[in-house]
Design a protein that fits this description.
297 residues, alpha/beta, TIM Barrel, eight-stranded parallel sheet, globular
């Protein structure tokens, strides 16, 4: 387990799920993206997280996407399966499936909508962790889930052997610093917020589960290496180069802008599923200009 934790570091792309214009999953496009990320130096892939449209895929599609990413990656880089749900039963089932499919770890989001207590969160993640012999990464993103996983609860969960890390998407650097210090290596902290990822890694975070890495994987990979090595000047220089991109990729709800960016790059088709719709017209030119400024298109 310790060896795997050391292996899952650096740039971890929160991979989009490419779709055709009619909304069907583009399986050839998915294979192409996985191969591209391996070639570009991405360190690990999250399949079917928020950016992968986990909320609009059917259970069968969810499973098939995880299986396909595992197959194509073929152990060249780790694959982390998104297995979060607001039903503990469903999260357990997805976690067990990910284990059966050969995923290297799972990413389990705080249950959304039903607003559980901190005790409910503890029991939920404990049940998920105990359901399969697979490393579990917690995922705290209160801007989407409403419920916030408190640092005290994370400390309790750190005592469960296969809970190995947390994706902190709060964007609160002081809170992240406190968590890293309190955990003292008991669990890995990953950034889940591209704007603040560099600073969190310079504080001791071990990687970024990144939306921006979908668009500029090589640059994000080098940035993560520099930040984890505590090469602050180089890391911050790279961070400044992609700062505009980090902002504009959230001009609408993720993954709307990042999918449009990849479409502009010729990497995927336009497909996205309702209730999400393609990027609004007023954002398209600023996004295209940002991609041109950085030299992506």
């Amino acid at each position: 387990m310790t060896q795997l934790v050391q292996h899952i570091q650096g740039s971890i792309v929160a991979l989009v799920t490419p779709m055709l214009e009619d909304g069907k999953v583009d399986w050839k496009g998915l294979e192409k993206l996985v191969e591209w990320h391996i070639e570009q130096g991405t360190n690990a892939i999250v399949a079917v997280g928020t950016t992968g449209e986990s909320s609009t895929l059917t259970m069968d599609e969810h499973s098939q996407v995880v299986k396909e990413v595992v197959r194509v990656a073929n152990k060249r880089i780790p694959v982390i399966a998104g297995t979060g749900a607001n039903s503990t039963h469903e999260a357990v089932k997805l976690t067990q499936e990910a284990y059966e499919f050969g995923a290297d770890a799972v990413l389990s989001v705080v249950p959304y909508y039903n607003k559980p207590s901190q005790e409910g969160l503890y029991q939920h993640f404990k049940a998920v962790a105990e359901s399969a012999d697979i490393p579990v990464i917690l995922y705290n993103v209160p801007s989407r889930t409403i419920t916030d996983l408190h640092n005290d609860t994370v400390m309790r969960l750190a005592g469960i052997k296969n809970i190995i890390g947390i994706k902190d998407a709060t964007g609160d650097l002081e809170r992240g610093r406190e968590l890293i210090e309190r955990l003292n290596g008991q669990m890995v902290v990953y950034s889940g917020d591209d704007e603040t990822a560099t600073e969190l890694m310079l504080m001791g975070g071990k990687g970024s589960i990144s939306v921006t890495a979908n668009v500029t994987p090589k640059k994000v990979s080098v940035l993560c290496q520099e930040a984890i090595a505590n090469h602050a000047e180089q890391a911050r220089l790279l961070d400044r180069e992609i700062a505009k991109l980090n902002i504009i990729l959230f001009c609408e709800a993720n993954p709307v802008p990042v999918k449009w960016a990849l479409y502009e790059m010729g990497m995927i088709e336009k497909g996205i599923r309702l209730p999400l719709t393609p990027l609004a017209e007023q954002h398209r030119l600023p996004l295209r200009e940002t991609l041109q400024d950085i030299g992506i298109i």
